[in-house]
Amino acid sequence: MDAAFTEEQEEIRRTLRELLHKRCGPDEVKAAVRTPEGHDAALWRQLAQQLGLPGLALPAAYGGVGCGPTELALACEETGRVVLPSPLIATAVLAAPLILALGSARQRAELLPALASGELTATLAVPGGQLATALALTGSNDGDWAGGGRAGGIQARLPQELPPTGGGAGWRLYGEAGQVLDGHTADVLVIAAHTGGFARSRTRLFVVRAQGRDGAGTPGLLRTRQTAMDETRPQARVQLRDVPAELLGEGEAGREGCGVAAALAATGASAAAALAAEAVGAADAALARTVGYVQERTQFGRPIGSFQAVQHRLADLYVAVQAARSAAYYAAWAAGGGRTGEADGPGVGALALAQALEALRAVAAEAVQLHGGIGFTWEHDAHLYFKRAACDELLLGPVHRLRARAAEQVGLFAEADGAPRAGRAAVGA
């Protein structure tokens, strides 16, 4: 593995860092999250049109830049550094890869160029707060997490009067999904829904446009922005009341739900790398702010950063951030195919995400502590990172479940002869 970045990758990092440094300070972030969109729409258009950020990992054939998970992770590290509120994660990390993997030729041609240019935004809606499970990060995604055939979740029904071998249109969705990232503003919603009733239960993905082709709102679709502690990660409740939807992947392949679980798991691997890199960027920025502050704040006539106890705490945080950065980069490299062109081992993304979330949580907590009395005020900049750390773990974790899922995937605690394998025997020692 060559750990050095290419000239193109370094240019992506440098250009994005310079732009965000000018346009996205803490005051600008706090102002952006209080807009109806929850982000700076002008800045998002600039990121999309000038830098091609939402299309960074999409093929050039669909208007994308043609890069991969590594470049997307580097971009997310820079957006995480300033705690940027934007539809990047929802659009480029969650929704676009699923449309690329499962969509029909017509659906890809209609949606992906518009997503890559920033003309449209998209998101993935999963019922019951099961986003991490749907992406196979905290558990298997081949179960009934989308509804299970009973009340709750999101149900999809094909009216009886339509022929069973028709196209992808004609479906109706019922139900509700909460904690949908940027769900109140997304133009395209990729919705996981349960079909087939109890007897033929399966999960499929559907596309719902927030507006019809005539510009009017989709009937039966109600979206409400939810109150969240981390305002930089806007979330919404999406309610579906007999909403017309289109099956993602038209024809028999889409009708049978072929490859849905595998596509979600593959998306989860690359999403975990991007989210880990984003957490690393946030942790690195919070640590840098804290180091700068302890060099200025004095106590007993000297900077508190000169005290050995403070230096030891900061050194531990530095090691944690660097370890998390290495894990995030490796996960992005593995998601892009690693050495073999295939995903380089199960559980890599989940482990990297767990380590990055843990590092961000530790750095954010110490940032509040080491900023002293001012750091405890809710309005202080340190709380942007503290809130991001707390809410990301609630949305994507917890950390121990991410690690448990990785251990399960590699068979670390697999049963042998009816008894659990443990410790050295589990890894072949």
UniProtKB/TrEMBL annotation:
Its cofactor is FAD. InterPro entries: Acyl-CoA_Oxase/DH_mid-dom_sf, AcylCo_DH-like_C, AcylCo_DH/oxidase_C, AcylCoA_DH/ox_N, AcylCoA_DH/ox_N_sf, AcylCoA_DH/oxidase_NM_dom_sf. Residues 6-119 form the Acyl-CoA dehydrogenase/oxidase N-terminal domain. The keyword Oxidoreductase applies. Pfam families: Acyl-CoA_dh_1, Acyl-CoA_dh_N. Keywords: FAD, Flavoprotein, Oxidoreductase. Residues 272-409 form the Acyl-CoA dehydrogenase/oxidase C-terminal domain. The keyword Flavoprotein applies. It comes from the Bacteria. PANTHER family: ACYL-COA DEHYDROGENASE, ACYL-COA DEHYDROGENASE FADE28. Belongs to the acyl-CoA dehydrogenase family. This is Acyl-CoA dehydrogenase. It comes from Streptomyces albospinus.
